[in-house]
Design brief:
This protein has about 350 residues and is α+β, with helices and mostly antiparallel strands. The chain has seven helices and seven strands; from the N terminus they run ααααβαββαββαββ. It has three domains: about 40 residues; about 60 residues, Orthogonal Bundle (Helix Hairpins), CATH 1.10.287.130; about 150 residues, Histidine kinase-like ATPase, C-terminal domain (Heat Shock Protein 90, 2-Layer Sandwich), CATH 3.30.565. Strands 2-4-5-7-6 form a five-stranded mixed beta sheet, with helices on one face. Bound molecules: adenosine-5'-triphosphate and magnesium ion (MG). The site of magnesium ion has 5 residues, from helix 6.
Length: about 350
């Protein structure tokens, strides 16, 4: 006998126990890992969804604030957001809505103001007309021909004033509400100036005012709305003739200035105090100095609107008791320039 060989045979019980132990260990490990993976991916998913929907939530929040009436609310840094095209569009849309609402509100308040002013302004001449008509009816044949003519004259003047007022109010309200789009076309300003000069000659003569027309030679065509320009010049002429006493001079001058034609209406009348020179262009503004005035204070407001529609501005130069000069320019036709439409 030189030695022994031991062969250890695992018993069935041992094998079963070992398998059980090993199996449960693997299972535990697997379950743990699975749980950790699930936890991690869920967290990752939550963070990603939170991050990805951040801008969307801001958009929803902004929409809700806007709907609740906070019209000034805007998405911050809209251009840097992941949904930049949507967020910037939202901000732009909000701006447009607010702008339109403000416009509508100002038109509405203007409309109310105009209705209030119209009813007030129309009442006075209407009361005068009614009063004289009633007197004519009551006194009838007892009136002399001269008295009758006098009353009828007053009624005629009153109705003319009324018609003028209605036209002016209508025109001004349309200009103010931007309902008038100038129909620009090339025309000869020299011809228009000549027409206005001839139309005003008789009135000037009746008032004993010398009317002058002074034009540069070969004036170019201007590019503007002829009827609006005529209206503006006529309003300035009405004022010049109204606020210039007998023996005065009113001059229409049309001069070429660089790329424009300059139109001046100069008078030798009562003039306008410096502090009133900007105010007179506002509607219903009339100065107390000078002569008694039956106008409504709309003429210059209309002129300003018309001139502004032509991308120009109206200026006045005046020394009290030494006359006034109103100046505006119109663009020459054919010169290459951009016209800004506001
Ligand atoms: N050429 C002028 N000389 C002196 N004052 C002027 C002259 N033009 C205008 N004004 C002053 O500016 C005011 C406003 O002028 P505007 O033409 O708007 O109104 P109005 O002439 O009084 O009335 P309307 O033109 O509506 O008939 C006038 O009432 C007047 O006080
Ligand atoms: Mg006037």
């Amino acid at each position: 006998m030189e030695g022994y060989i031991y062969i250890l045979l695992a018993g069935k019980e041992f094998l079963n126990t070992r398998e059980l132990l090993f199996g449960s260990y693997i299972m535990k490990m697997g379950l743990g890992n699975l749980f950790l993976t699930l936890l991690f991916t869920s967290l990752l998913a939550i963070i990603s969804v939170w991050y990805l929907t951040k801008n969307l939530r801001e958009l929803v929040h902004a929409t809700r604030r806007f709907q609740q009436g906070d019209l000034e609310y805007r998405i911050k840094d809209a251009e840097r957001s992941d949904l930049a095209s949507v967020t910037t569009t939202f901000n732009e849309m909000a701006d447009t809505i607010l702008e339109d609402m403000n416009k509508l509100q100002s038109i509405e308040s203007l409309r109310r103001e105009l209705i209030a002013n119209i009813s007030h302004d129309l009442r006075t001449p209407l009361a005068v007309i009614q009063g004289y008509i009633e007197t004519l009816q009551m006194k009838g044949n007892k009136l002399t021909k001269e008295q009758r003519d006098n009353y009828l004259n007053t009624i005629e003047n009153g109705s003319k004033r009324l018609a003028k007022l209605i036209t002016q109010l209508f025109e001004y309200s349309k200009l103010e509400a931007n309902q008038i789009e100038p129909k620009r076309e090339p025309f000869l300003i020299s011809e228009l100036a000549n027409d206005i000069y001839s139309n005003n000659l008789i009135l000037a003569k009746n008032k004993n005012i010398h009317l002058d027309l002074n034009m540069d030679e070969n004036l170019p065509l201007v590019f503007a709305d002829i009827s609006l320009v005529e209206r503006a010049i006529q309003n300035l002429m009405d004022n010049a003739l109204k606020f210039t006493p007998s023996k005065g001079i009113v001059t229409i001058s049309v001069l070429k200035k660089d790329e424009n034609v300059e139109i001046n209406i100069k008078d030798s009348g009562y003039g306008i105090k410096t502090e009133n020179q900007t105010l007179i262009f506002e509607r219903y503004r009339q100065t107390k100095s000078g002569k008694k005035n039956e106008g409504a204070g709309l003429g210059l407001a209309i002129v300003r609107k018309i001139v502004e529609l032509h991308n120009s501005s109206i200026r006045v130069h005046s020394i009290p008791n030494d006359g006034a000069t109103f100046t505006f320019t119109l663009p020459i036709h054919g010169l290459n320039r951009t016209i800004q439409i506001t």
